[in-house]
Amino acid sequence: MLAKRIIPCLDVDNGRVVKGKKFQNIQDVADPVELAKRYNNEGADELVFYDITASNEQRGIFLDVVEKVAKEIAIPFMVGGGIRTTKDIHQVLRSGADKVSINSAAVQRPDLIFESAQKFGSQCTVLSIDAKEVASGKWNVFINGGRKDTGMDAIEWAKKGEAYGVGEIVVNAMDADGEKNGYNLPLTTAIATAVNIPVIASGGAGNIEHFSEVLSQGIDAALAASVFHYGEIKIPALKTSLNEQEIPVRRNTK
User: Which residues does UniProt assign to the signal peptide (predicted)?
Assistant: First the structure.
């Protein structure tokens, strides 16, 4: 079995890490550079940085903040938000990112993820899907920071993303975001079953058991924010627990 990844997420607005529930009620948390340094030292496998208002505000990502974070870490770094062109992707990668996460722009112009995969490689191209349940067992894709329902089926969109060449998919379960009641297993496992590329679960982590549940269901990585930001779960303790449950993680902690 391939080792699983533990990935803290920095949702950034106006240069600060923020967090909310179900993509609403956003509150200030901390400085992104300081949090990034902490997670790097604690043994996180990767770090994700989302500029959460860039797409909705029709602006570019805060590259200066990306550069500052990249200088402080030695782990893979994924960046998303406001990425609309291959020029944007190039700028983000030059600023220190290892991967780009494309969400709204991929829905509006799917050729962008194909172009990114062709020019920069599938390993650099990640499809981020904000999905919300609209009927029993049916999830739609939302864009612009979860504000707009596209009417697209999330599972079908994941399959199309793989066909266009993305290297992995982040499944952001909007209903579970910030609730701390566990990851959305039906949604995430449905997408993981439908594709043959790595899937990252996002939204809903509240305790160590939630990580165990999702990572034992064939999901490749678990992303979380507030439980790490507020110290409710320490990454070293989480990895120790996963190892004890025979769920392999990429490396043990200090």
Answer: none
Confirm whether 153 is a catalytic residue. Answer: no
Q: What angle do CA 234, 237, 241 make, to 5 degrees?
A: 135
Is-catalytic flag, 11? yes
With b for 16 or more beta-carbon neighbours within 10 A and e for fewer, the 19-51 pattern comes to bbeebeebeebebbbebbebbbebbbbbbbbbb
- Sequence letter at residue 175: D
DSSP state of 2: P
**252 pLDDT tier (thresholds 50, 70, 90):** low
pLDDT in tens, 139-155: 999 998 788 999 999 99
Rounded Cα distance, 241 and 88, in Å: 39
Residue tagged active-site, from 11, 88, 177, 220: 11
The answer to whether the beta carbons of residues 124 and 93 sit under 8 Å apart is yes
CATH class of 5-244: alpha beta
At 220 the three-state DSSP class reads coil
Query: pLDDT digit string (tens) for 19-46?
Result: 655 544 456 668 899 999 999 999 999 9
Q: Where are the domains of the chain?
A: 5-244
- In this prediction the pTM is 0.91
Pairing type for strands 24-30 and 16-21 reads: antiparallel
For residues 8 and 224, the answer to whether their CB atoms sit within 8 Å is yes
Catalytic residue among 13, 45, 88, 130: 130
Mean pLDDT, all residues of the chain: 91
